[in-house]
UniProtKB/TrEMBL annotation:
Cytoplasmic dynein consists of two catalytic heavy chains (HCs) and a number of non-catalytic subunits which present intermediate chains (ICs), light intermediate chains (LICs) and light chains (LCs). Acts as one of several non-catalytic accessory components of the cytoplasmic dynein complex that are thought to be involved in linking dynein to cargos and to adapter proteins that regulate dynein function. Cytoplasmic dynein acts as a motor for the intracellular retrograde motility of vesicles and organelles along microtubules. May play a role in changing or maintaining the spatial distribution of cytoskeletal structures. Gene3D superfamilies: Protein Inhibitor Of Neuronal Nitric Oxide Synthase. It comes from the Eukaryota. The keyword Transport applies. One of its GO terms (biological process) is mRNA transport. GO terms for cellular component: cytoplasmic dynein complex; microtubule; nuclear pore. Belongs to the dynein light chain family. This is Dynein light chain. It holds the Pfam family Dynein_light. It comes from Lachancea nothofagi CBS 11611.
Length: 88
């Protein structure tokens, strides 16, 4: 059983949040390297929700980003942090 996501910050719609969590869940089941997980999530979001998505996956990182309104989500699944956002 996969750990439940823990949302830390978001300005995303419930529908987009669910889509991101579904893509992320599948990516973490299929891949183990953080770089691969981030790549899969980014490619899926670009295809399904338009280009210019950025995805950071890791156990420890700092960030300060600019994003489109309504397109930012920061959450954890187990020990992995996920920062997902779209730029114009």
């Amino acid at each position: 059983m996969s750990p439940q996501p823990v949302l830390k910050a978001s300005d995303i719609s419930p529908e987009l949040k669910d889509a991101i969590l579904n893509i992320t869940s599948k990516a973490t089941e299929d891949f183990s390297l953080e770089r691969e997980i981030a790549g899969v999530i980014k490619k899926e979001l670009d295809i399904k929700h338009g280009n210019t998505w950025h995805v950071i996956v890791g156990r420890s990182f700092g960030s300060y980003v600019t994003h489109e309104k309504g397109h930012f989500m920061y959450f954890y699944i187990g020990p992995l942090a996920f920062l997902v956002f779209k730029t114009a």
